[in-house]
C-alpha cells in the first residue's frame, strides 16, 4: 500500500493525539505519576540515566519545541522543524522528586553549549527543560541558578527553560536504542565527546564535582579583582571590611571557585580579628595545610583541596573543642544559607542545623 506524505502526517498526528489521550488516562488512573521532559542532545544517550532510577516508570524518546506537526526523524535531524530531540519521563513523585530528576539531567549534558551537544550540532540537539506546571518551572529555574553559582564549567548556563508543548514520540527503532543496539550505541557514545566532558567535570558516580581546572585568564574573568588577589596571589582582605566577618546566618561556606563545601556556621565563632573564623573545616580532606614562612614568621596556610585557592591561615588560639582558629578570607568563600541548601544541591548538610 502506497501512502503519500499527507496521509502519513495524518496518521502521525492521530498517533500523537492517541499517545496524549492514553498517557492522560493513565495519569488519571494513577494520579501519583507525573511527567518531566528534557532535551539533552541525542536522545539515545538520555534514556538510560533516567530509566535506571527508582521511581521512574517509563522514558520515551521523541521531539518537542518546534512548529511542525508530527515530525519525522529525518525532518528533525535536518533542523527543519524547530523541534529538539528529547525524552519524556513518567515518574512516581512519591519515590523520586522532580528536583532529583533535574540533578540527573544536568549531569548528562554540557549546559553551556547553545549550538548543540558534543558531536551533534544544530538547534535540534540543544539542551532544554520543558516544564509541565508552575512548580516545575520554579524548580527548574532554581536549579539552573544554583548550578551557575557553583561555577563548574567556567561559562554561563544557556539551557532554555520553556513550557512543554506537544510531545511527539520518535519512531519505534529509536526507543531503548541503547538496549536494542548496544554495540552501535557504545560506538557512537564513545566517540561523541559526551563521556569525556562528563568525566572532566563530575566524579565517577556522577554526583560530585571534580577538582576545578581553569586557566588563570579564565579565573581573572570570573572573579572580582579582590577575589583573584586573595585566592590566586595569596592576598589578604581588610579586617572588619569583608562580607562574612560578622555574618550570623545559618548555612555553609563554599569555595568561591569550585563550589566545594568548606566550613559551616555551626563551627563559626567571634574571634575579634575581623575575619570569618571557624574551629574546624567540614571535611579535613578538602583542606590542605602548608607551612608559610612569608612576612618573616612561621604560619600554617590553609588552601582549598579542590581549586588550590589560598583561603587563609590556621592558628592554635581557638576555642574548644578543637583549640583551632581557621582565619579565612571572605573573598575566598561564598555563603549558602540554610534555606537554599537543598536548592543548590547541598541538602546532605541540612542535618547540621536540626
UniProtKB/TrEMBL annotation:
Residues 216-338 form the MsrB domain. It comes from the Bacteria. The active site is at 42, 327 (nucleophile). Signal peptide: none annotated. It catalyses: L-methionyl-[protein] + [thioredoxin]-disulfide + H2O = L-methionyl-(R)-S-oxide-[protein] + [thioredoxin]-dithiol; L-methionyl-[protein] + [thioredoxin]-disulfide + H2O = L-methionyl-(S)-S-oxide-[protein] + [thioredoxin]-dithiol; [thioredoxin]-disulfide + L-methionine + H2O = L-methionine (S)-S-oxide + [thioredoxin]-dithiol. It is an enzyme of class 1 (oxidoreductase). One of its GO terms (molecular function) is peptide-methionine (R)-S-oxide reductase activity. Keywords: Multifunctional enzyme, Oxidoreductase. Its EC number is 1.8.4.11, 1.8.4.12. Belongs to the MsrA Met sulfoxide reductase family. NCBIfam families: msrA, peptide-methionine (R)-S-oxide reductase MsrB. Has an important function as a repair enzyme for proteins that have been inactivated by oxidation. Catalyzes the reversible oxidation-reduction of methionine sulfoxide in proteins to methionine. This is Multifunctional fusion protein. It comes from Desulfoluna butyratoxydans. The gene is msrA.
Amino acid at each position: 500500500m502506497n501512502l503519500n506524505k499527507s496521509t502519513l502526517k495524518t496518521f502521525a498526528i492521530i498517533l500523537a493525539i492517541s499517545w496524549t489521550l492514553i498517557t492522560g488516562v493513565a495519569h488519571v488512573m494513577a494520579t501519583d505519576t507525573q511527567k518531566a521532559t528534557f532535551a539533552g542532545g541525542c536522545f539515545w544517550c538520555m534514556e538510560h540515566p533516567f530509566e535506571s532510577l527508582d521511581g521512574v516508570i517509563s522514558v520515551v524518546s521523541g521531539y518537542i519545541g518546534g512548529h511542525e506537526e508530527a515530525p519525522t526523524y529525518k525532518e528533525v535531524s535536518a533542523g527543519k522543524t524547530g523541534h529538539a530531540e528529547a525524552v519524556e519521563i513518567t515518574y512516581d513523585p512519591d519515590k523520586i522528586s522532580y528536583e532529583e530528576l533535574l540533578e540527573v539531567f544536568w549531569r548528562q549534558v554540557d549546559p553551556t553549549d547553545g549550538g548543540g551537544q558534543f558531536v551533534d550540532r544544530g538547534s535540534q540537539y540543544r539542551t532544554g527543560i520543558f516544564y509541565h506546571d508552575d512548580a516545575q518551572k520554579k524548580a527548574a529555574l532554581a536549579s539552573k541558578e544554583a548550578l551557575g553559582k557553583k561555577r563548574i564549567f567556567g561559562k554561563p548556563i544557556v539551557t532554555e527553560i520553556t513550557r512543554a508543548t506537544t510531545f511527539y514520540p520518535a519512531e519505534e527503532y529509536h526507543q531503548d536504542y541503547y538496549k536494542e543496539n548496544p554495540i552501535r550505541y557504545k560506538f557512537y557514545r564513545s566517540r561523541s565527546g559526551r563521556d569525556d566532558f562528563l568525566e572532566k567535570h563530575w566524579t565517577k558516580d556522577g554526583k560530585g564535582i571534580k577538582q576545578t581546572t581553569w586557566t588563570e585568564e579564565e579565573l581573572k574573568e570570573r572573579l572580582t579583582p579582590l577575589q583573584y588577589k586573595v585566592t590566586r596571589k595569596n592576598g589578604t582582605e581588610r579586617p572588619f571590611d569583608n562580607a562574612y566577618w560578622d555574618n550570623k546566618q545559618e548555612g555553609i561556606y563554599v569555595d568561591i571557585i569550585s563550589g566545594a563545601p568548606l566550613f559551616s556556621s555551626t563551627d563559626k565563632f567571634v574571634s575579634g580579628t575581623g575575619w570569618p573564623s571557624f574551629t574546624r573545616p567540614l571535611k579535613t580532606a578538602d583542606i590542605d595545610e602548608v607551612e608559610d614562612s612569608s612576612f618573616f614568621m612561621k604560619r600554617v596556610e590553609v588552601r582549598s583541596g579542590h581549586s588550590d585557592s589560598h583561603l587563609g591561615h590556621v592558628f592554635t588560639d581557638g576555642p574548644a573543642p578543637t583549640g583551632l582558629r581557621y582565619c579565612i578570607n571572605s573573598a575566598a568563600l561564598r555563603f549558602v544559607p540554610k534555606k537554599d541548601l537543598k536548592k543548590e544541591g547541598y541538602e546532605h548538610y541540612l542535618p547540621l542545623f536540626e
